């Protein structure tokens, strides 16, 4: 099918399973309707990255294209196959992820001992994080989250830092799954929030997204944009005392890049 021509059957199954065999737009699911997978950013280099793919039902897929691209009656056999796959994997996946989550929970409890153990709500949060982002992703961010958030006072982990640590596991896992440019944007926005204050966060995020959109429009590739955000843009965040001066610099920087290197810098 044209709308998912570059999505392999294995990747499609992975996305359907991740989204619990339900449409992410209207929540319709197997066996009531046929499900397909659509990229949020078609034509981009990372269009088929799992974080950029979503499950949609036949009605929402047709609506998103503004035309009928799928006739649900044509996919009766595939709908049956999706149902069989969901039923066969539902129990197996649940047990598999449960085992993986238990290993992460044991590791986190060992990091917190003897001062704390995870409570029921925190345990559930970590289970959901493992299910959403995968065992390896969560394992990779655990130590960063621990050293960034945990505070020791009088030889004991503080309760506040323990809570922040558990929340950071989910946040760090989410960030690590983002495409490179999105990670770099988050890095710059975090720097702006720390330097200029939280009240400017949404304003800065909007300016930076416009900046990235203009660079993409004029042919800058994703690797170059990521490097520019992490190095040049983030450095200038700390060079100015007021947000208005930084925004003025960002605008001028964007104009210079477009004029000097338009249309492409590969």
Verbal overview:
By secondary structure, the protein is mainly alpha-helical. The chain has three domains: 2-70, no CATH class; 91-176; 180-261. It is 64% helix and 5% strand. A two-stranded antiparallel sheet has the order 1-2. A two-stranded antiparallel ribbon has the order 3-4. Helix 4 (120-133) packs across helix 5. The radius of gyration is 22 Å and the shape is flat. It starts with 8 loop residues before the first helix and ends in a 5-residue tail after the last helix. Mean pLDDT is 83; it is low at 68-73.
Summed up:
It is built from ten helices and four strands. With 266 residues, it is mainly alpha-helical.
Structurally, the number of domains stands at: 3
Sequence stretches where pLDDT stays below 50 over 5 or more residues: 68-73
Radius of gyration computed on alpha carbons: 22 Å
What's the average pLDDT? 83
- The side-by-side strand order for the widest beta sheet comes to 1-2
Oligomer: single chain
- Tell me the number of strands: 4
The helix-strand sequence is: HEEHHHHEEHHHHH
């Amino acid at each position: 099918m044209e709308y998912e021509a570059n999505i392999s059957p294995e990747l499609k199954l992975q996305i359907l399973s991740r989204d619990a065999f339900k449409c992410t737009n209207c929540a319709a699911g197997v066996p009531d309707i046929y499900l397909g997978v659509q990229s949020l950013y078609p034509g981009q280099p990372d269009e088929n990255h799992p974080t950029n793919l979503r499950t949609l039902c036949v009605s929402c897929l047709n609506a998103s294209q503004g035309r009928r691209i799928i006739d649900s009656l044509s996919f009766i056999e595939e709908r049956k196959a999706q149902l069989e796959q969901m039923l066969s994997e539902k129990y197996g996946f649940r047990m598999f992820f449960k085992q993986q989550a238990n290993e992460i929970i044991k590791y986190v409890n060992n990091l917190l001992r003897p001062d704390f153990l995870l409570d029921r709500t925190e345990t559930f949060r970590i289970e959901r994080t493992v299910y959403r982002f995968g065992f390896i992703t969560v394992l990779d961010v655990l130590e960063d989250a621990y050293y960034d958030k945990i505070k020791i006072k009088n030889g004991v982990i503080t309760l506040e830092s323990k809570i922040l640590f558990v929340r950071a596991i989910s946040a760090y896992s989410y960030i690590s799954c983002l495409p490179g440019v999105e990670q770099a944007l988050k890095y710059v926005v975090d720097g702006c929030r720390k330097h200029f204050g939280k009240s400017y966060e949404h304003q800065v995020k909007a300016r930076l997204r416009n900046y990235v959109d203009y660079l993409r429009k004029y042919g800058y590739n994703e690797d170059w944009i990521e490097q520019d955000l992490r190095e040049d843009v983030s450095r200038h965040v700390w060079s100015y005392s007021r947000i208005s001066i930084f925004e003025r610099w960002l605008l001028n920087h964007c104009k210079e890049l477009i004029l000097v290197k338009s249309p492409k810098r590969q």
